[in-house]
Give the backbone structure.
Amino acid sequence: MLAATTIPILYHIDSMFRRLLVLWLRWRAIGVVYLPASMANLLLTEFASKFLVAHKNIIYKLKFIRYHFTLALGVVGYRRPLPKLEKIMDTTYHDIWSLTKNALLSNGCDDRNSSAVATTVASAEWTGSRSHGLFRVPGYIKSLRSRKVDGHASPEVTHPTPAIVSVDANNGFAPLALEEGVEALTKVVSSTGIAALMVRNSYHFAALWHETFSLASRGYAALAVVCSTPLVAPFGSKKAFFGTNPISFAFPRKTEQPLVFDMATSTMAHGDVQIAAREGREIPSDVGLTSSGSSTTDPNEVLDGILLPFGGYKGSLISLMVELIAAGFTGDNFSYEAELGDNGDGGPARGGEFIVAFAPEILAGPGWDEHCAAFFAEYARQGDTYLPGESKRRLADLRGTVTVDAEIYRNIRNLTQINNK
Ligand code: NDP
Ligand code: PYC
């Protein structure tokens, strides 16, 4: 009886001292704490040892021996080398997809939502959009854990007019709502020639090219916009008001990969500034300003300060247009409104996305592709020009590997394992 109550108590006190010992082994500077602690612990464990020997507790005896062995190593200055953790690693598309899907599933997301987000994340990582690939997964998980986002949301698709598709994401992540919306938009635009898709009540954290590229791969041109939370100061201001407000445009080509571009209307995407800060890299001095409004090349200072719109007042006006289309037309949040309603969990903000799709066959008639192909050929002859979208060619072949940030990968795996226990 006495042993049954005393052993756990002694064991807890001892394990507390052992934690202190481990701390000391890592940071010798706290030897001041360690010495008195270890003396007290020694006396205590001597007592515990005698007591437990008397009770023939073999398991505790082994723990006791291990403890004193570690203590001796600490005293002679031996430090167990920490395993070397790689900074980058190679992995496959399917591994990225499964890692993301399992992380979301184990944090309360259902199968359909997890699969849709995993596809968006894996396609971004696979094609080199690092700031919107695995890097975003911890953010998705945070918003599941804070219950800001409903991981079981089922989007509802309606048709307010024959040429408009409206999707209520019902507080879910944007990718599933977009998957279903793009499917419906494709059917509509094939008969109307021009059609719009509005997604509302969604949480958006992704690259936009996924949906425009998907439409262009089926023969339709598409323009997509979204806003987020205040990160960018409008021209003439030093206070964040616009989101980084990306625009993506894709154009189909019958015998070639579609043209697709996707760009933040800030000098740099916020995610890329965050990645530069993680990796300790400088950024160009025109990307943003410090919180006191001075120019800087330190990404951390820009993260505490503001980003600037690309191209001075012209970029600022395009960003303003994105706010009006993505929020004004969908009726969902402007960037400044998204911040007011957000719980600050670090995950995506609530807002809308607006996509317009065009059917060139209906608009320009047969021959549109040859006409545009001649234009692209002329464009190529202008010098060292580049037709954006080349990077998406990788999606046609998902074999092989891509190099990813190993620390982010391990972090996501831990976020999965913790919740699987
Ligand atoms: P980049 O500056 O990396 O690229 C912008 C576009 O320019 C790409 O389509 C790229 O094509 C093209 N491009 C690059 N170099 C040339 C060139 N020399 N000639 C012609 N075209 C070129 O993108 P951002 O950093 O601005 O944005 C990154 C991502 O962040 C985007 O996918 C965006 O959707 C996402 N984002 C999402 C937000 C959100 O709220 N959800 C907010 C802000 C950004 P290619 O791809 O072929 O290299
Ligand atoms: O990279 O700027 C960005 C961004 C904002 C929201 C999602 N991505």
